[in-house]
Design goal:
The protein starts with a strand and ends with a helix. It is globular and about 45 Å long. With 207 residues, the protein is an alpha+beta fold. Helix 1 packs parallel to helix 3 and helix 4 packs parallel to helix 6. It is built from 9 helices and 4 strands, in the order E-H-E-H-E-E-H-H-H-H-H-H-H. The chain binds glutathione. Glutathione (GSH) binds next to loops.
């Protein structure tokens, strides 16, 4: 087994969290390297594309969250072997990445511009993405996004829905998901209650 070191910011969420969860669920040992915000400017140049997460595999540092998710998904059995199911998994992960990027682009805007941009996103792209993700979930059987079982796509959407419902995003109503895509809330709860996911967060809380 390759020696793995996953580097991401020091919080339980975001683009690095699905891979942390997948490795935990799969019982695969890895170094969980967490960077504090204050250390990021000095660390940035160590990353290939000036961003996190990165994954070091036997000394080779690679990046891009969904590429990492696919790789660890294959290692942990949380990525479909069937080509079509793999496509469904990828499409959902890339859609979640798209909408997260649009939201992230508003973070550093001045307050007025942020309010305007986020209100437009909430009624526009975010609503559309949530409706479409819910439709994808229903088409896949209603419980998981691909392969009728937990995959890295579920972990990626889990983090997105948690972010949208957390209340940290000013001007994006925290009940938006509940109103426009209630099946995604049920999906969120399903993933949160997965024994390994629940155990992971119990352990994080106790740490
Ligand atoms: N396409 C990249 C985006 C990576 C990205 O933007 N990461 C953010 C954290 S979630 C970051 O490193 N931000 C710090 C910065 O850009 O200075 C991926 O999917 O991994």
């Amino acid at each position: 087994m390759a020696k793995l070191k996953l580097t991401y910011f020091d919080f339980d969420g975001g683009r690095g969290e699905p891979a942390r969860l997948a490795l935990h669920i799969g019982g695969i040992a890895f170094e969980d390297h967490r960077i504090a915000g204050k250390d990021w400017p000095a660390f940035r140049d160590n990353t290939p594309f000036l961003a996190l997460p990165t994954l070091e595999v036997d000394g080779h540092v690679v990046s891009q969250s969904n590429s990492i998710n696919r790789y660890v998904g294959k290692l942990t059995g949380l990525y479909p072997k069937d080509n079509w199911q793999a496509f469904l998994c990828d499409e959902v992960m890339d859609a979640a990445e798209d909408i997260s990027t649009r939201i992230a682009q508003t973070i550093d805007l001045p307050e007025d511009a942020k309010k305007k941009a986020r209100e437009k996103l909430a009624t526009g792209h975010i609503t559309r993405y949530l409706e479409q993700l819910q439709a994808r979930l229903k088409a896949a059987g209603g419980e998981y996004f691909a392969d009728q079982r937990l995959t890295v796509a579920d972990l990626k959407v889990f983090m997105l829905i948690r972010w949208l419902r957390s209340g940290v995003l000013d001007h994006i109503p925290k009940d938006l998901v509940d109103r426009v895509a209630p099946q995604l809330v049920k999906h969120y709860e399903r993933v949160a209650n997965h024994p390994k996911v629940a155990e992971y967060y119990q352990r994080r809380k106790a740490a």
